[in-house]
Amino acid sequence: MALSERDKVSGHMTTGHEWNGIKELNTPVPRVVYIFLISATIFSVTWTILMPSWPGINDYFRGLLGADQQAEVRQSVAEGVAERSSWTDAIVDEDFTTIRADPSLMQTVRETGKMLFAENCAACHGAEGLGNPGFPNIIQAPTMWGDDPATIMETIRVGINSAHDETRYGQMLAFGRDQMLPLSDVDRVVTYVQTLSDPAIATADNAEDIGEGATIFADNCAACHGETGTGMQETGAPNLTDQYWIYGGDRSSIRHTVYYGRQGLMPTWEGRLTPAYIKLLALYVADLRTAAK
């Protein structure tokens, strides 16, 4: 190992290490690094003393400033609730007719309802409420239990086939799987149901099947869907004569429904959303339905 010496180019001393003629300089650490390390240390110690930091056995060191983020969050939430109370109280206290006649309240319904719908309903019913496969179009299609705001609010509150004690129930029986109808009758009633929404399907070739399907429908389906297939709000059975289908209106989808049955699910929102927000959502959906007419 060579002795250290001063490098002629840089002016720094060498360490005495040399590899293939290359000498290692003993370059000092830049002063700015020391300044940064000292500043960071001072900041860390100061922060630890002033702010909540070290845990203890039963508690933690709360810092000389006494900062409490939980208290700040609770205060922020309380301030938000107080700020919204100017309209949430009106939503809860006023009847639907009064609210819908108040432009300022309805502006709040449209703005806040859009956010609530996106966060809680759009995943199933779509961002615009026009439905997805297996989930109904709640803006344009006839509603199964009624489309006045009070009825919509009740559906949101208790759900459909949900865990709520007062839930609405709706179920399509499995006429084929449970051997309530033979396969030939399933096919005939499917043909008849197709003609309810698309009369052009009826021809001379399938007139006999349609006639027999109508009889099967009257004996097995009319009790829920009505004699003409237009649905019954009392039973929550959908209208079969329009173009709105939850599971599909093609022959294959209808046959699957008749054979295997259907049982949709809408969760109860009571306990998840406040009464004010449930009522506001009902007003929002009713408002969208009115605008779509």
Automatic annotation (TrEMBL):
Predominant subcellular localization, coarse grouping: membrane
UniProt entry tagged with the keyword Metal-binding: yes
Needed cofactors: heme c
Pathway recorded for this protein: Energy metabolism; oxidative phosphorylation
This protein's name: Cbb3-type cytochrome c oxidase subunit
Entry's family note: Belongs to the CcoP / FixP family.
Subunit and partners: Component of the cbb3-type cytochrome c oxidase at least composed of FixN, FixO, FixQ and FixP.
Stretches that traverse the bilayer: 32-50
Species this protein is from: Devosia rhodophyticola
InterPro entries: CcoP_N (IPR032858), CcoP_N_sf (IPR038414), Cyt_c-like_dom (IPR009056), Cyt_c-like_dom_sf (IPR036909), Cyt_C_IC (IPR008168), Cyt_c_oxidase_cbb3_su3 (IPR004678), Cytochrome_c_Oxidase_Subunit (IPR050597)
Domain Cytochrome c: 108-197, 208-289
Textual note on the cofactor: Binds 2 heme C groups per subunit.
Entry-linked PANTHER family: CBB3-TYPE CYTOCHROME C OXIDASE SUBUNIT FIXP
Described purpose of this protein according to its UniProt entry: C-type cytochrome. Part of the cbb3-type cytochrome c oxidase complex. FixP subunit is required for transferring electrons from donor cytochrome c via its heme groups to FixO subunit. From there, electrons are shuttled to the catalytic binuclear center of FixN subunit where oxygen reduction takes place. The complex also functions as a proton pump.
Record keywords, A-Z: Cell inner membrane, Cell membrane, Electron transport, Heme, Hydrogen ion transport, Ion transport, Iron, Membrane, Metal-binding, Oxidoreductase, Repeat, Respiratory chain, Transmembrane, Transmembrane helix, Transport
Location of this chain's protein in the cell: Cell inner membrane
